[in-house]
Design a protein that fits this description.
By secondary structure, the protein is an alpha/beta fold. Helices cover 45% and strands 12% of the residues.
């Protein structure tokens, strides 16, 4: 009598197609990424392209680590925005600052990480691991931002989304004057009205220049409460079905929210805390984000937020417990994973119409305020 096969042996049989000179990236991922973190990267590609890009899903992306200096704004993030695959972003301020170098025509170079930093300092060369650039790049970018924030539209408190949208217009204009195209994430986000938030706006050279101008009487100030409430309102609007492509399917109610985390840190928490803000603080009925995708090199056992698992996020109300099967953590460098996920998604999924959420912030805030007024937390 034949032995009954264990239920644990229902997974796909490991039998990859041999790689040859005609192997395409999609086939490489689908066929040969069969185990360990290669399998997690395959699952990340599948989750992003098959579920997170559905018409009723709103995709938020978080960025930590020096991704834009490595060119990932140009190579991956801008193509994802243009395809309608990113709806809103939370990032470190440093990524937006270094992104601006490219948009205003400044150069970054490949370098050797073993070069003496004492020698580099003497040569006025700044290093981000193996990315080298002249010290004047910092000075010129500082000068650009100081001139920009002298404009009348900046003389008030504002959310970081409004700040980056206004700055993006100036970067886009500089790109056009220099004959550049698709170089700056800030410029692309302005063009496609993708809201860009910074969870710690003072923790970057942009914030340092804003602080310097404040000493001269400039009235620009970042309002963190606006950022907290605006990001929560985007998620609530997504879950209430206000952000979607086309009409809902028969019997479908509401919509879904997806968070794609590159790295971890403060932007990760700022994106995930939108659900506790809605549920715990504002007392609005909600269950958590529907899709959780993270690329990280951080371990969970050190207790840091960067390595915290989606299961742990469930305990805070950040992730819907019923959607844990739709959560993937890929322990890999973002500079490796993001280009592969981007190429895979662009090959497998047709573009989505841009949602242009920046222009709907007031609508979403009105929804948040309306539901908060009905809660028992006031």
């Amino acid at each position: 009598m034949a032995k009954k096969q264990s239920k644990f042996l229902q997974g796909r049989r490991i039998d990859p197609t041999p790689i040859n000179h005609r192997t395409k990236l999609v086939d490489l991922v689908d066929s040969t990424f069969v185990a360990y973190n290669a399998a997690r990267l395959r699952e990340a590609c599948w989750l992003f392209s098959q579920k997170m890009l559905e018409p009723d899903v709103t995709v938020g992306v978080t960025l930590t680590g020096a991704l834009t200096p490595a060119g990932l704004g140009m190579s991956a993030l801008i193509p994802l925005i243009k395809a309608g695959f990113i709806d809103w972003i939370i990032s470190t301020g440093a990524n937006f600052y270094h992104d601006t170098h490219f948009g205003i025509g400044l150069a970054m170079h490949e370098g050797n990480a073993s070069t003496s930093d004492i020698v580099l300092r003497a040569e006025e060369v700044v290093r981000i691991y193996d990315i080298f650039f002249d010290y004047s790049v910092l000075l010129d970018t500082d000068s650009f931002f100081r001139r920009v924030i002298e404009a009348p539209e900046f003389q008030k408190p504002m959310s970081t989304a409004e700040f980056h949208y206004l700055c993006g217009r100036y970067v886009l204009e500089r790109e056009r004057k220099l004959g550049l195209k698709n170089k700056s994430l800030l410029a692309a986000a302005h063009e496609y009205a993708v809201p860009l938030y910074t969870s710690s706006p003072g923790d970057s050279s942009i914030g340092m220049n804003v602080a310097a101008k404040a000493l001269q009487g400039n009235k620009l100030a970042f309002d963190p409460s606006l950022d907290v409430n605006e990001t929560a309102s985007i998620v609530l609007a997504a879950k209430r079905g206000l952000i979607r492509d086309g009409k809902p399917r028969r019997g479908q109610k509401g919509g879904r929210s997806a968070i794609f985390i590159l790295g971890g840190g403060s932007p990760k928490n700022f994106a995930l805390q939108t659900e506790p803000q809605i549920q715990e603080v504002l007392g609005i009925d909600e269950r958590g984000h529907d899709y959780f995708l993270q690329v990280t090199d951080a371990r969970p056992d050190t207790g840091g937020l960067s390595g915290a698992t989606p299961g742990e996020a469930v305990s805070w109300g950040k992730v819907d417990p019923d959607r844990l099967p739709d959560a993937v953590v890929c322990y890999l460098d973002s500079t490796v994973a993001l280009p592969i996920i981007t190429a895979y998604a662009l090959a497998k999924h047709k573009p989505r119409p841009p949602r242009r959420l920046y222009g709907r912030r007031e609508e979403f805030m009105n929804l948040l305020l309306s539901e908060y007024r009905k809660s028992n937390r006031r």
